[in-house]
Each structure stands twice: as C-alpha cells, then as structure tokens.
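ok so for the tutorial part 2 we go from a plain amino acid sequence to predicted structure tokens. step 1 is just haveing the sequence, like this:
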Amino acid sequence: MRKTLSCAACLLFLCTILSAQEIIFEHYPQGLDFWVVIPYNTIIFKQAETSARYQLTLQIKNKDKRQVFDQTVNLDIPRRDWLRDTAIPVFLTAVLEPGKYQAAVRIKNLSPGEKIDLKKTLIVQENYTEIGQAYFLASKDGVSFMPSGLASLPLPVQSCEIRQKFSAPVDSIQVWVDDFLSGYTAMPGGYSAELAELVNQGGVKSVRISFFEDNIRYNMEPFWYDRWFSYNFRYSYADQIQQLRYVANQNEWKSIRSVPEEMYPEVIERFWQMHDPSPGTLRNEARESFYQRVVIADERYTIHKRLQGWNSDRGRIYIKYGEPDEVHSEVHPLDLYPYIVWIYYAQNLEFEFADTGGFGQYKLRNKDEEY
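step 2 — the prediction. this is what the tokens look like for a chain of 371 residues:
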C-alpha cells in the first residue's frame, strides 16, 4: 500500500528561510535558487509608453558583511491588459556555503526612477529542499509570466510549463491535467512538463502533480500568483511595523515598537516565524491571511494618499477580524450621520462606523467593543 502525503505537510524548506513570498529561496546541491515574483499591477508605465524598463539587482552579504553575490537583470515589460493580476518571475541562482546571509533585492524603474528595496535574512544549512514549488509559467507574445490560475490564462498561450526541482530520491512523477495524464518523468533533480497543447483547448479545471518515493506519494498543486504577493512592494517596513500593531499582543508590541529602524526586516520575519501555524513547511498561512487582509483593506477603504485604507478604522477592524458575517448600512438616515454596522457572530462582536465628516471616512463609534 502506498502512503499519501499532502504537500502542505511534506514540503520542507531545509534551507532555513526568513522570507516573504515575493522572494522564494530553494536550496539544492547545484546551488541556491532565487525566484523573485514581481506583481504586474505594481509596474509603473510612463504616459503613452508601451513598455516599462526595469532593473532587478540581487546582492548577498555574509555574516561579516562581505559581498558574496551580485547579479543584475534588465527587464523590458510590455503594457498588456491580459497581464493584469499576473506576475513577472525572475530566476537567479547562487552557490553559497552554509551560514547566515543578508539578501538585498532592488527593483528599479529606469524611466521614472522609482525603486523598491527588499531585505531578507536567510540561513543556508547543510540539508537541501526535498521537494520545491511546482512553478506554473506561461508565455504569450514573448512575455513570460506567472498566472493567478487556470481561469485567468489569456488563451491561446505560446507555452505553458510546470517547472520543479527536488533533492528527494523520487521514483517517478505524474502530471495530470484534469483526468488526463499529460506527463511522466523520472529524471534526478527536477523536471519540466509542457502543457500548452492541452491548456489551449480550453475548459481545463485543474492541474495536479504526484511524486512517488518508495511507498510514499506526494500530492501537490502548481504554485500560482496571488495578489497578496504585492504586499512588500506596496508597504515600507515602517508601515509593516505599524500594521503588526493590529495583531500583536501587548508584550509583543512593546518589544516591536522599541527596535531601531535598521532591524525592522528582521523583527518582522521573527514575528511571523513565531506565529507560523505550520512551522517547518514552506507556507505560513497566518502571514498570508494577514497580507491578504491588509491589501484588501487598502483597496476598499483608501480615500486618498493621506487616508490609507489599512490605517482607517474599517481597515483596522477588517485586518483583525476579516469579513463580517453581516452588514447593515444607512446612507441617508433621518437626523443621523451615515453609518455602517459590521456583525461577527463567532466572536459576538458588533462594530458601528459613522461618517461624521461627510466625505467617506467612517470612524468607529464603539471602540470599547474592539478591546
């Protein structure tokens, strides 16, 4: 009898990593693989320009602050409606000895000059990533991109590929498109499965992968782009520290708010390590949910640049508690301000927001309920 494991439990990052999902590290005998996922919706185009020129630089320093890796990639990203809600993947690889490193990624728009800096700490161990992510990569009009799912693919595509590496002694691999077995590969170290012919026919609902190792079968799905990947592109580390205030307990917040600015990235990573519901696995579901809520709150409740949605009363409550179970509202009540009421049944909470200024900034009226 074969034993089946879900890859939510079996995907171990044996290179200890402190990272957000925009930068993904996997450790193999050939070196350390870096995937930088750039959300297309964060790309800035100059007016009347049909493309944007970006430059991505990855620099890595060891514990002695000596630079051990430096690589730059130039990107020419076209303006395409079908690229919305996708990501532009950039792949780099480096050979590093076991130890602690600081990785710095700079993504710079070469036209307007805006730049985004991401800093991550990583600890490279002797062990390797057993089974890495199954990256779903597509290309159209010569542009390689990572879609958010099968339903969002802009058919027809030129190529549609599952690319994956592993260090585990895998006996065989099966790639299924719906109920059709599209590929079977048993090459050591990794594989690539081209699915464009099947996907371009339309109507494909699922892609899944099965690994077989002795009497164990690993089941997993492809790695899709999700809009919360844009979190670190949207918010400075100072903003991220302030956002943690919503979910940290009193002792945690007392410690977090006292750290110097240069330690913000490390403190943020440490916080999410402590709040990882499935430590040892690739994903941190609590962190993903938090990022999703922050991004959604910002999109829904931002009034203008000085009134960001995540920093509003409704944004704060949404980030802390998620979608309300029931909503009541009155835009033109008699002798009252416009108001909205959110009800959470499981927590037995009810929040009332009122627009006392008349310009859409709803403020929480019953703050005692929150605490």
